Predict the structure.
Amino acid sequence: MPVPKKRKSPARRDRRRAHHDKVAMPPMTYCSNPECGAPMLPHHVCPECGQYRGEAVIEVVSEEELEARKKERREKAKAAKAGRAAPPAAEKAEEKDEDEDEDEDEDEKPGKKKGK
């Protein structure tokens, strides 16, 4: 059985293996929206205008709008967190009072007598 006389250098080895890792560019089409015409993958929603086969499928938001929405959400969360800090303790105290009142009412109800 034949055996190679010398070892192959890493450069030769890598050149031989180079074509296995090549990734072909996916086929591209263009958006059917006449105002857009952006390149897109076939059978996918257009990333620029959000249309698929001429129908608006998703709402596309610009980067500035996205940042503004995130900022609003953060502010609302902070306001809600700051506003919620005190009331839960007060709500729990009110719930305990209501539970105690209900327990007292149940003891006073006429009906079955205890002990018989």
The beta strands are 29-30, 39-40, 51-52, 55-56. Residues 25-102 form one domain. The helical segments are 10-17, 63-84, 87-108.
